[in-house]
């Protein structure tokens, strides 16, 4: 054996020690990476899934007075649980960026599905602008938008889903065509106006885009339909109040004698959002901007017609993306339902209504704040950073850090 050479046995044992150390090191690193992965997965599960349960669990159906029992069967089961949301604006192929689309649609799908499973509404109304580009989308893009909508807003048989038309679905009055209205009607079974009766509650769904009053074919049809509905409702009301019907009501189908609830996309005429209050009302710099008739709100004339035809007890509308409560003629409340999409608001919401033929009570259910979710991601990201730095031992004081580097150098 040459001088200075190590014995063969020693050499072998050193190599095997090095091998074991390497395996241990790899194991340690693997374990650390696994911990990081777990943390990332937990954060994603919370922010993208559980957070909707945590927030929506705090919402509840409001109490409503139930009229003196007429029959022993009248109970809480006779209260209609209705959910109202608006302006989902599913992005189209022209203006929508794929990432924005993916994010917003995931958020809305999770919020809607969680609300359905926790709150179990009887009926859900979407107050228009379901799509962002229905006003100009090709038939193929429309079919794709509809397919995504049906997936996001899928619902069990016990819950009905009704959709009112909005200007982004078929275009503003000047862009609206029979073709666009027909394809909307094919999917949502809604064109001019519709009466929905559930548990003795009358809902009138209005095509407010067609209330321009210029006598266009679609507008005339919509007005004629609404007038017919109003006649039917008023006759039923008269029979109940006066216990007789006039000649014009002869042979008319009897409807529940309950004042209707109007559901439409455009709000009734109001000068601006200046009087609107609440955390989700319009921004202060936007509140005093005057509304344009037939664009931001219905014309004064169309608004008066609706009030006169239907004498509604409540109106729910969308379009403005912000919240507002207005009182028409000093007694008829109108609720502007804010947008359901996080693309339009940091704090989207929906309205929950407990409704009977004679009374109603509303509650606003707020969804997770986008800013809060982003904050959670930032905190989790910072925590991950700290863990990685600590693992690399870069948090030691400079002296130890230098020593660590020297030790590493010597080992090499
Ligand atoms: Zn709109």
UniProtKB/TrEMBL annotation:
It comes from the Eukaryota. Keywords: ER-Golgi transport, GPI-anchor biosynthesis, Hydrolase, Manganese, Membrane, Metal-binding, Transmembrane, Transmembrane helix, Transport. GO terms for cellular component: endoplasmic reticulum-Golgi intermediate compartment membrane; Golgi apparatus; nucleoplasm. One of its GO terms (molecular function) is phosphoric diester hydrolase activity. The chain crosses the membrane at residues 32-55, 374-395. The keyword Amino-acid biosynthesis does not apply. InterPro entries: Calcineurin-like_PHP, Metallo-depent_PP-like, MPP_MPPE1, PGAP5/Cdc1/Ted1. GO terms for biological process: endoplasmic reticulum to Golgi vesicle-mediated transport; GPI anchor biosynthetic process. Its cofactor is Mn(2+). Its main location: endoplasmic reticulum. It is found in: Endoplasmic reticulum-Golgi intermediate compartment membrane. It is a multi-pass membrane protein. Residues 81-322 form the Calcineurin-like phosphoesterase domain. PANTHER family: METALLO PHOSPHOESTERASE RELATED (PTHR13315), METALLOPHOSPHOESTERASE 1 (PTHR13315:SF0). Metallophosphoesterase that catalyzes the removal of a side-chain ethanolamine-phosphate (EtNP) from the second mannose of the GPI-anchor protein intermediate. Participates in the glycan remodeling steps of GPI-anchor maturation to allow an efficient transport of GPI-anchor proteins from the endoplasmic reticulum to the Golgi. Belongs to the metallophosphoesterase superfamily. MPPE1 family. This is Metallophosphoesterase 1. It comes from Chelonoidis abingdonii (Abingdon island giant tortoise). The gene is MPPE1.
